[in-house]
Design brief:
The chain is an alpha/beta fold. The protein has helices spanning about 15-25, 50-55, 110-115, 170-175, 195-205, 245-250, 255-265, 270, 320-340, 350-355, 360-365, 370-375, 380-395, 400-415, 420-434, and strands at about 5-10, 30-35, 45-50, 70-80, 85-90, 105, 125, 130-135, 145-150, 155-160, 185-195, 210-220, 225-230, 235-245, 275-285, 295-300, 300-305. β12 and β13 (about 225-230) form a beta hairpin. α1 runs parallel beside α9 (about 320-340). The protein starts with a strand and ends with a helix. It binds flavin-adenine dinucleotide (FAD). Flavin-adenine dinucleotide binds near residues 13, 34, 43 and 307.
Length: about 425
C-alpha cells in the first residue's frame, strides 16, 4: 500500500488518542493503529483518570458524554497484615464540588472507545485489529513509517509516535526501548466484581455517583514488593493486586492465587460479598520510574506514555502522564511541521515540554522509591505484622495494664527489628520520596 501520512500513531490508548486529538483539525494527516478489535479492547480494566489532564485535551469531556463511573471523593490507605490492618481515609467536601472530577473511575473498554470516537470529527483515521510489526527506516536510519500485519500494509509517515504501552514488543524490537528489566515492571492481576449500585453506595458510605479509592500494601503481597487497590465503579468494584516481576520470579507465588487470598482478607471480603466476577485480566505496570525511561525521541519518532515508562508508582498515576505526554508529543510534531524538520532536533520541543512539566519533576522526585521498596521487604512482612500485633495487643481488654502491654510490644518489635535498622529504614524511605 505504501500510503503516505504525515503522522502514524501506534496504539489507541490514552497517550496515542490524546496526541490524535491535538493533531486533528490542523491539516496534519494522521492515522492511528490499534491491535485490539476496538480501542480499549486490550485495556479492559476499570481505573482512575484525572480530569485536569483530560480537560487540557478535551475541555468539554463531560458534555461530550465521557463514560464516567464515579467521582472520587475519598482516598483510603490500608496497611494490612494477613489477619487485619490499619486504615487511613481522607474525604473532603472540595472533591464533591470545587474539585469535582479531580479523579474519577472509568471502564477502559468504554472510555478508550469513546475517547477515540471523538477524534473522528477531527478527521483522524483509527484503524483497529492491526498490529504494527516494525518501523520503516531510510538509509540514514531515519524513521519514515510503519509496517503492519495487513497485506501490503506498510504506511509511510513523516513522524511515528510510539504510544504502544508497556506490554508492546515493538519499542524493544526496534531497539528504541530495551526489554523492560524485571525490576522495572510489576505484574498486576485484576478482577472486576459486579454489585448493585446501591449496595456499593452503602458499603463505601457514599452518595450516588461518588466513589472511593483504596490503596493497600502489607502482607497481602506475600513478602513481595507490591500493592493492591480497590476502586469503586458505578455497579462494580475493580479489585487488583500486583507485585514486582523480579519478586514473582523468585517467590513462585501465583498471581491469581494471591488475588483470591486478597479477596478473602477480613477487610476485603465484606466489601465484595455476593458480587459476581465480570472480567479477569493481567497486565504489566511500568514501575521503573525515572531511571528506566528510555530515549524518548529520535529522527522521525517520539515515544509517549507507558511505552516511555512514564508512570508514577507511588501515586498510581499513569493515565494522566500518558495523556499529557501524548499532548506534548503532538504539539512538538506541529512545530516540526512548521519548521519542516522531522529530525530529533526538529522534534526537540517534546523533551523540552516534558522536562518543564510535572511529569519529569515527579518522576525525578521519586526516582529512589522503587529501589527503597525492593531493598526493604520488611515493609511487606515484619512491619505490617508488628503493626497489627501492637494494635491488637492495645485493643484487647484482658486485665493486663497498658504499661505492661507497651513493654510486650516493644519486646516483640526489638526481637524482629533492631533500632539501627528502623532508623535506616526511615532515613532511606524519606530520602526516596522527599
Ligand atoms: C491493573 C492496572 C491498573 C491501573 N490503574 C491505574 C489508575 O487507576 N490510574 C492511572 O492513572 N493509571 C493506572 N494504570 C496505568 C495506566 O493504565 C497506564 O499508565 C496507561 O494506560 C498508559 O496509557 P498508554 O496509552 O501509554 O498505554 P496503553 O493504555 O497500554 O495503550 C497502548 C495501546 O497500544 C496498543 N498497541 C500495543 N502494541 C501495538 C502494536 N504493535 N500495534 C498496534 N497497537 C498496539 C494496545 O493494544 C493499547 O491499546 C494501571 C495499570 C494497570 C495495569
Amino acid at each position: 500500500m505504501r500510503e503516505q501520512f504525515d503522522v502514524a500513531i501506534v496504539g489507541a490508548g490514552p497517550a496515542g488518542i490524546s496526541a490524535a486529538h491535538v493533531l486533528g483539525g490542523r491539516g496534519i494527516k494522521t492515522i492511528v493503529f490499534e491491535r485490539g478489535e476496538y480501542p480499549g479492547a486490550k485495556n479492559i480494566s476499570g481505573g482512575v483518570l484525572y480530569g485536569h489532564d483530560l480537560a487540557r485535551i478535551l475541555p468539554d469531556f463531560r458534555e461530550k458524554g465521557c463514560p464516567i463511573e464515579r467521582n472520587i471523593v475519598e482516598s483510603r490507605l490500608w496497611y494490612l497484615s494477613n489477619d487485619g490492618g490499619y486504615s487511613v481515609a481522607f474525604r473532603d467536601r472540595a472533591f464533591c464540588d470545587r474539585l469535582f472530577l479531580n479523579a474519577f473511575t472509568v471502564g477502559r473498554a468504554r472510555f478508550d472507545r469513546w475517547f477515540a470516537e471523538q477524534t473522528k470529527e477531527k478527521g483522524i483515521l483509527v484503524v483497529c485489529s492491526t498490529v504494527v510489526t516494525d518501523l520503516l527506516r531510510d538509509a540514514r536510519g531515519q524513521v519514515i513509517g510503519v509496517m503492519t500485519d495487513r497485506p501490503e500494509g506498510d504506511v509511510k509517515a513523516r513522524v511515528v509516535l510510539l504510544a504502544d504501552g508497556i506490554n508492546s514488543a515493538l519499542a524493544a524490537k526496534t531497539g528504541f526501548r530495551p526489554e523492560p528489566n524485571p525490576h522495572d515492571v510489576a505484574l498486576a492481576v485484576k478482577d472486576v466484581i459486579e454489585l448493585p449500585e446501591e449496595l456499593i453506595n452503602e458499603r463505601f458510605n457514599v452518595e450516588t455517583g461518588q466513589g472511593v479509592t483504596t490503596e493497600i500494601i502489607g502482607e497481602i503481597t506475600e513478602g513481595m514488593d507490591g500493592v493492591a487497590v480497590i476502586y469503586t465503579n458505578r455497579n462494580s468494584l475493580s479489585v487488583c493486586i500486583g507485585a514486582n516481576l523480579s519478586d514473582f520470579v523468585k517467590s513462585r507465588v501465583k498471581p491469581y492465587e494471591m488475588l483470591e487470598r486478597l479477596k478473602e482478607h477480613p477487610m476485603v471480603a465484606p466489601l465484595i460479598r455476593g458480587g459476581q466476577s465480570k472480567e479477569y485480566m493481567a497486565h504489566w505496570v511500568a514501575e521503573g520510574g525515572y531511571d528506566s525511561i528510555p530515549g524518548l525521541s529520535g529522527n522521525g519518532y517520539l515515544i509517549a506514555g507507558d511505552s516511555g515508562m512514564l508512570f508514577n508508582a507511588l501515586h498510581r498515576e499513569g493515565s494522566n502522564m500518558a495523556m499529557t505526554s501524548g499532548r506534548f508529543a503532538a504539539e512538538a510534531i506541529v512545530e516540526a511541521f512548521d519548521k519542516g524538520d522531522f529530525s530529533s532536533n526538529g522534534l526537540a520541543g517534546y523533551l523540552e515540554r516534558l522536562d518543564g512539566s510535572y511529569i519529569m519533576e515527579d518522576l525525578k522526585k521519586y526516582r529512589g522509591f522503587g529501589k527503597f521498596r525492593l531493598e526493604h521487604h520488611e515493609l511487606f512482612t515484619t512491619l505490617p505484622r508488628l503493626h497489627s500485633f501492637a494494635a491488637r495487643e492495645m485493643l484487647t481488654v484482658d486485665g493486663v495494664s497498658k504499661k505492661e502491654k507497651q513493654r510486650i510490644i516493644w519486646k516483640a518489635i526489638r526481637k524482629e527489628i533492631s533500632t539501627g535498622k528502623m532508623i535506616r529504614l526511615f532515613r532511606h524511605g524519606w530520602g526516596s520520596i522527599k
